[in-house]
Specification:
Cofactor: heme b; Cu(2+); heme
Main location: membrane
Strand order of the largest sheet: 1-4
CATH superfamily of one domain: Cytochrome c-like domain
Number of strands: 4
CATH architecture of one domain: Orthogonal Bundle
Shape: globular
Radius of gyration: 27 Å
Keywords: Cell membrane, Copper, Electron transport, Heme, Iron, Membrane, Metal-binding, Oxidoreductase, Respiratory chain, Translocase, Transmembrane, Transmembrane helix, Transport
Family: Belongs to the heme-copper respiratory oxidase family.
Protein name: cytochrome-c oxidase
CATH class of one domain: Mainly Alpha
CATH topology of one domain: Cytochrome Bc1 Complex, Chain D, domain 2
Length: 737
Amino acid sequence: MNVSFNQPTAVTSPDRATGSIAIGHQPPGGDTPVERFAYDNRIVRDFGVATIIWGIIGMLVGVIVASQLFAPAANLGNQYTTFGRIRPLHTNAVIFAFVGNAIFMGVYYSLQRLCKARMFSDLLSKIHFWGWQLVILSAVATLPLGLTTSKEYAELEWPIDIAITLIWVVFGINMFGTIIKRRERHLYVAIWFYIATFVTIAVLHIVNSMEMPVSFLKSYSMYAGVQDALVQWWYGHNAVAFFLTTPYLGMMYYFLPKMANRPVYSYRLSILHFWALIFIYIWAGPHHLLYSSLPDWAQSLGVVFSIMLIAPSWGGMINGLLTLRGAWDKVREDAILKFMVVALTCYGMATFEGPMLSLKNVNGIAHFTDWIVAHVHVGALGWNGFMTFAILYWLIPRMFRTPLYSKKLLNFHFWIGTLGILFYAVPMYIAGFTQGLMWKEFTKESVLKYPTFLETTLQILPMHMMRALGGTFYLLGAILMGYNLFKTMDAGKLVANEDAEAPALPKLYTPTGGDTFWHRALERKPFPLLVGSLVVILIGSLIELIPTFMVKSNVPTIASVQPYTALEVQGRDIYIREGCVNCHSQMVRPFRSETERYGEYSKAGEFVYDHPFLWGSKRTGPDLHREGGKYPSSWHYHHMNEPTSMSPGSIMPSYPWLITQKLDISNTADKLTALKKIGVPYDDPTISYANEDLKKQADGISSQLATEGIKVNSDREIVALIAYLQRLGTDIKKMEK
């Protein structure tokens, strides 16, 4: 059965099973005048070109980052290209630049055709496009400079956060304006996902980005410690859910039926899938914080809802794959459909593995290891990357009214990309299993078999080399795609304003009966859908967040824990600037293997003055929460200047600029004032004499280093960093052996 070009599924056309008229369609014999208009393809083209360019840039940075994990000299000795500084650049580039532009490309194309209307405002479309590119450029300018909040996937500083909010509002106005002026009564399933994406990302971004500014490009998180961790991973997990998943599901529901020329398998399944997904997903964030200082009840909620999440996630995958029933002969011949099949398969794999990793016994082994890296990239490279490639290959020839330049390059891209995913993921799984097991292994004498963290690091270097090779394969495929598509554009001519016609929105005809009648009534009302989506995502959010903030017993305080000194605050900010949290955790979990290796497990009350929290999500190096007093200050000096002198074989880069660069203390009082406003109990004399106290403590560290044969001025950044490292974990007594 053929599907018309602007009607992707049976949901927007007369019911194929009964022949009845769906809600929102003109009753038989109606006389509605046909209106002529034009779709805006220029904005789709612009977002498509940006997707290609930023994708290649983001993946190139990723290969450089991956190479530094076995060849730290790949940073060329430059402080602006170290792993800690450009790893957030890579994640932001691929999530918000590559995937973000792809989302807007797909939404702007499909929304116009599903609504049978041009976008609400060409001006808003242009503001959205250029505003989003400026946001991305601001990330490129600030992150390598170390201007970061350190919160994963939310590293950008407060002025950029405000800009993101404004651009997102522009996008929302344009989207809802288009929906309001639509000529199709029914809101197709893809639009449900677009609406849920818009409202949820707005809530997540605003709540997680609550910051106290210190200066134009410096701020502190409004939340501290346990509360900051919960908010961050409520945001972080649901950024994956509502930025990397729901809009892509919406695009899957539109583009896959188009590509296969088949209707979506099940309308009822799409209803169950949508509402169950957005309700359950929002609860699952705490599974990133299992065995941490987060309250047990919050961890348990995260586990329960993570397990439940497999049902709606697989509902979407099944609905997609079964849409191809009767069209598998096309899959064999059409590489674009191959991309879609692999994308859906990777989505299914990732959404099975996520709930599995949320089981506490599995998480106890997997967390902080490369297993998580493998899991994330199966979704990123397979689900987001391959679906983006498929949509680009499908869209560009149609908008430029010309065949694809080279089908051979298309097929080669599919196979080199698939090979890249395998070469990336499989070694990372092996590395992750190796790390998790080596960290926990004891001898017959009940001592750690691998007491030195570096032993594990050296064991997995070959896997990191293979991972970089896989990333290079994947990057090569993206470059070939760019060449193929730009040559296609050059051969054709963009139909900037694509002529279309449709009847004006007809008088509503309401048939009776049907078990989905109630939902069809909802589907013709965008604002009730918006409100319904908001209510559904707020239920889990409020139940998890409010008790953690309002019930004091969730974060029991420790009397001996005191605020950081002025010098330690400056040192902590250097630690954040250099991206140390990307490689080192500050969370000793309550396992015998960890307490034997690092010391007493971490308590919630130890983090009450940590703005932001720095628990980390990956251990490329050892945990640092009990680092204070473990080594003399001279050890830290040599370790930062030349890591291999203290740890032979270390893959940590050297930081010689910390020894030569002078510590900026012009804003010390401003930093303490900002921290006081968000709850850190600094008194006025402490703030007034902040730099005097700072210099006194710095002179003491400098003098101590001098007694060990190291001459360094007390006003250097290395002194402040040493002060912070020597403070870590010293507020409570260490467990006596």
